[in-house]
């Protein structure tokens, strides 16, 4: 359909072309189906729906309530949860809603150090939550294997008595030992919270552990990474929401109610029901048998890509990957900063992101590392043999980053290659 706003239409077309002609290696990005796109672009965006299904502040909700309830029921089914809040606009407010529900200003959260893989909302000083709460940080014990220092985590928990122990990371390529964390958290009486934004699709696909199986109380997630849904957030809990109008006590039993009230009216007004419909569609897709095949292929591709990069001289933090992502120290490997590598690969159609490494001596804008992963390219249909080709292109481009003609030739080659793998929305 032609838009009257030609400039915006043109830029959308340019972005569509960029996505078709390149390969997306950023591990927090993915491609959605045409059905998800259609739900996002539907008339549901016209409707104001403050409140929750059956408890709205506006009329005309008979269809909206059914859509949101479908999203809730499907999310609960996917994660084996008792309750789901599908209204958070993204992962950051989902995390902040849990903090707000459970904590008072000044309370302590024990979370992963940002440079060792933690997320901005896990206590980075530049965030709002870091100004409200006291974040104590744990780290990896050995960055060559990725083993978290659970002994340090235990010592910090006993010393600071955190109200929340938070796991789940933005750039950590290994699996978490949830049972060890749960044991520590139970001993000090902490709420066990898992931010599964990156690996949510791997959990529902059966190739990553589910924190609920180890006694965790809350899972937060985005819906647009390995879940292949629209950009949005999600909060899952054990327990049932209370219908009482009284202000609930801060107890584990009441955590679903506390979180619902923290999301609305605590942090957000009207939910984005067109996005919630798209979430429901993506949850439906994730419930299909072929999603498990997709999730396994993400892992298989990541294993081959990691191995192929190591064969070509890339030093990988944690020695490889157990999930969908890897972090490479390109400063140690090639004496180049992550921003230079990012720009070089962007120029040939391979998109990834610069990234700090554990205890990085360089800055976040010119860090030592890069981060990449396989969810989006797996969605496009790439498999193990293509991973070896990607590693080869990366190696050639980085080692010849000043050779403009060679980079142009690589760009043409990658464009022709990428066009063989259509976007799922095409």
Q: What is CATH's topology name of the largest domain?
A: Aspartate Aminotransferase, domain 2
Q: Tell me the span between the first and last alpha carbons.
A: 15 Å
The residue-averaged pLDDT reads 96
The backbone outline, from C-alpha atoms, is globular
Oligomeric composition of the shown chains: single chain
**How large, in whole angstroms, is the Cα Rg?**
22 Å
Strand arrangement, largest sheet?
4-12-11-10-9-5-6
| Tally of individual domains | 2
Residues in helix, %: 40-55%
Helical segment count: 16
Looking at CATH, the homologous superfamily of the largest domain is Type I PLP-dependent aspartate aminotransferase-like (Major domain)
Overview of this protein structure:
The chain has 426 residues and is α/β, with parallel strands linked by helices. It has 2 domains: 37-286, Type I PLP-dependent aspartate aminotransferase-like (Major domain) (Aspartate Aminotransferase, domain 2), CATH 3.40.640; 290-418, Aspartate Aminotransferase, domain 1, CATH 3.90.1150. The chain is built from 16 helices and 17 strands. The chain has helices spanning 6-21, 34-40, 62-79, 91-102, 128-132, 150-160, 178-188, 200-204, 255-267, 273-286, 289-311, 330-334, 338-347, 375-379, 384-399, 404-418, and strands at 23-24, 51-52, 55-56, 83-85, 108-112, 134-138, 140-142, 147-148, 164-167, 191-195, 218-222, 233-237, 315-316, 325-329, 350-351, 353-355, 369-373. The strands form 5 sheets. The chain has a 7-stranded mixed β-sheet with strand order 4-12-11-10-9-5-6, with helices on both faces. The chain has a 4-stranded antiparallel β-sheet with strand order 13-14-17-16. It has a two-stranded parallel ribbon with strand order 1-15. Helix 8 links the parallel strand 10 (191-195) and strand 11. The longest helix is centred in the C-terminal third of the chain and has 23 residues, at 289-311. The chain starts with 5 loop residues before the first helix and ends in an 8-residue tail after the last helix.
């Amino acid at each position: 359909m032609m838009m009257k706003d030609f400039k915006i239409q043109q830029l959308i077309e340019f972005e569509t072309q960029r996505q078709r002609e390149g390969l997306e290696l950023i591990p927090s990005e993915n491609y959605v189906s045409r059905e998800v796109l259609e739900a996002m672009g539907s008339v549901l965006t016209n409707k104001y729906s403050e409140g929750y299904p059956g408890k709205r502040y506006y009329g005309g909700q008979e269809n909206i309530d059914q859509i949101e309830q479908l999203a809730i029921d499907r999310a609960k089914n996917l994660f084996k949860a008792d309750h789901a809040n599908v209204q958070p606009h993204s992962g950051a407010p989902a995390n902040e809603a849990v903090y707000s529900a459970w904590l008072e200003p000044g309370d302590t959260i024990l979370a992963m150090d940002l440079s060792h893989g933690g997320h901005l909302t896990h206590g980075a000083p530049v965030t709002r939550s870091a100004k409200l709460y006291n974040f104590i940080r744990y780290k990896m014990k050995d960055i060559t294997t990725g083993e978290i220092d659970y002994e340090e985590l235990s010592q910090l928990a006993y010393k600071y008595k955190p109200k929340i122990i938070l796991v789940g990371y933005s750039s950590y390529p290994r699996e978490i030992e949830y049972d060890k964390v749960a044991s520590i958290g139970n001993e000090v009486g902490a709420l066990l919270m898992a931010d599964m934004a990156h690996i949510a699709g791997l959990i529902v696909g059966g190739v990553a552990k589910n924190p609920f199986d180890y006694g965790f109380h809350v899972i937060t997630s985005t819906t647009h990474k390995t879940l292949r849904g629209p950009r949005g957030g999600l909060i899952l809990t054990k327990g049932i929401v209370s219908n009482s109008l009284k202000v609930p006590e801060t107890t584990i039993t009441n955590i679903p109610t506390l979180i619902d009230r923290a999301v609305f009216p605590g942090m957000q007004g009207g939910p984005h029901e067109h996005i919630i419909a798209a979430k429901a569609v993506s949850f439906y897709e994730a419930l299909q048998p072929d999603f498990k095949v997709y999730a396994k292929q993400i892992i298989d591709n990541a294993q081959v890509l990691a191995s192929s990069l190591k064969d070509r001289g890339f030093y990988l933090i944690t020695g490889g990957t157990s999930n969908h992502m890897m972090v490479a120290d390109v400063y140690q490997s090639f004496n180049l900063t992550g921003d230079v590598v990012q720009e070089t690969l962007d120029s040939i159609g391979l998109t990834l992101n610069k990234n700090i490494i554990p205890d990085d001596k360089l800055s976040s804008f010119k860090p030592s590392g890069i981060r990449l992963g396989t969810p989006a390219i797996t969605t496009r249909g790439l498999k193990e043999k293509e991973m070896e080709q990607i590693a080869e292109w990366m190696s050639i481009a980085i080692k010849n980053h000043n050779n403009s003609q060679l980079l142009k030739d690589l760009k043409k080659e990658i464009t022709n290659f990428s066009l063989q793998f259509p976007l799922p929305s095409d």
